[in-house]
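Hi R.,

Here's the chain you asked about this morning:
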Amino acid sequence: MPDFADASTDKLASIFAPRSVAVVGATRVPGTVPFDIFSNILKDDFQGTIYPVSPSAKSIAGVKAYKYVLDIPDPVDLAVIVFPSSVVKLALEQCGQKGIKSLVIISAGFREVGGAGVQREDEILQIARKYGMSFIGPNCLGVINTDPAVHLNASFARRMPAEGAIGFLSQSGALCTAVLDYAHAKNIGFSKFVSFGNKADISDIDLMLSLKDDPATRVILMYLEELTQGAAFVDAARRIIHEAGKPVLVLKSGRTTQGASAAASHTGSLAASDEIVDAALRQAGVIRCQTIEEMFNNAIALTYQPLPRGRRVAIITNAGGPGVLTTDAAVHERLELAQFSDATRDLFKRSLPVTANIKNPVDVIGDARADRYRVAMSAALEDNNVDGALVILTPQSMTDIETIAEEVCNVASAHSKPTYTSFMGETDVASGIAILQRRNIPHYILPESMCRAFARAHDFSVEQARRLTPAPTYTDVDTAAARAVLDGAVDLARGYLSPSDAMKVLEAYRLPVLRTGVARSPRDASAIAAQVGFPVAMKVESEDVVHKFDVGAVLLGIDSPASATAAYETIVANVRRHQPEARIDGVFIQQMAGPGEEVILGVKRDPAFGPVVMFGLGGIFVEIFKDVAFRIAPIPVEHVRAMMQEVKAFPMLTGARGRPHRDIAALEECLLRLSQLALDCPQIQELDINPLIVRDQGSGCAVADARILTASPQRSM
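And here is the predicted structure, written out as tokens:
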């Protein structure tokens, strides 16, 4: 894994805070990208020196132009390249000769267009490496730093955003312009704003780690279209959250799986790319958002207000209906309605009208003015049973909206607990909303959005305080034995291991494998079944038969030598009938696992994240119900437990409806051992243990069936 920690800050220092900028390829034609970028740097009060470089113009916007970068007489910290893609490599050569170490390549026409564009991108990357240069892009909108000491708008955005504490990173330049317009309307400011495009050199991980140490940034927002270095991304996000205490919010496109080829195993078919991304972001502590609006709803809560210390909210409203809606939304988001202390209720009785509802939600009645809001908010926020206030206003004819907004701001700023607001409506409440936004009080058009943002802020508070226990390293495993079996399969391009070889791999990692044997004839079957111990399960030993139940190649509960002989003949006949081309190496005989709950454990090797571990309730219908959860290996102990609890049917293992309590501790160990196996053995492409029988508490587990797909040259990651 690359070490992004130190490199990110060094690479980006001259990009975010240059003392001088050359716009290479600037023109005199307004409305073009080269002119607009130069104009933005100039008109938005960049605090350094700017040099336009243009082969044909003597000056641009009244500033002396240079024909070549090499003609600039002074040192240059940052070059912004806006030439057509066909000549960008020539511009980079001159920048390298000039000694410029940092660049932003705006130009499009590289990897994103395929074909020759891929070659052009490789060429500029080689030139940058030759001269020790670092660059953002190509194919990007540019870079913005709102710090008054720098005030750099090296982009073709329509306007410079306001100064703020949100760092925004985006793979899409077009989305950036929409985000800037949205934020301007909401009075949301930024610390840094970066479109990184193709990330041919400086990556999204470099950028997010630079914001980790940026004192001007409190919250990091990211729009991503791909995660090519998933494991490194997860590691970086964890560090940002747990070392710097900064939330990371991600809007990731590409959620659907249309066009993806189906995988052969249960795990492979269920672990679609977006499910893996979702699991990885959750494991990292990242807040994943579905829309731009949701992202900024969460961001303003995390940026402007203290983190809630708990889930107990006080709802304050001047209308009963919105109070009920907010209550429903709060409960849906797993928030709790605070139970006010006796002192708070007494204060409400003395200070609010007799018609007011002094329970939660507190209804200060439709004719309420600022004084009632002040009393209700202050009392609630001072109550030790309250973790935050949700304040609602609907515009009545007598409602002094602006005065109430000012009072809400005053009370909120006097307390260390968060206050969120929802002034419902649009036109009538616009002036009040403007006051709230100007004074950094989070405002939401809908109470549901307000509750969702409070819940995400609390989730982050919990995540920030969490101290994870690393996955244990089991020393009683035989890695060499497992790799020997797997290497043999890879060398022979066998694909799926035979059932007996799959059990050997699992046994090497001390997973609870039952007694087994392989019969090569009906006579062998009766003898081996007796040695294993009746009753037994019998299944075909064949690399070619993947879904054995579907072709009648599995028989259970065989309880005598004669039955074993007959079962052997039946299984072979069924396979010959359904898959006549299948190679049959015999019949695998296995001790029956006995009673217990069936679960599925799985592994899929993802190209971005590495081995992904799956857990769910097992059986043949797992792909229909899709009641499964995923984590990236290695899995912290707490995430193993959380992963199990995410499965809706998990209560079946913990005594639901009078069922016996199953051995959760043994199941947890199986998942941790499987995680270690997946990390130690990259030959494993996909793996299913289905079912794993989880016995009663204290009685352990048993592997009833397993399937392992090995990597081939075509499948290797």
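One quick note: The first helix runs from residue 4 to 16.

Cheers,
M.
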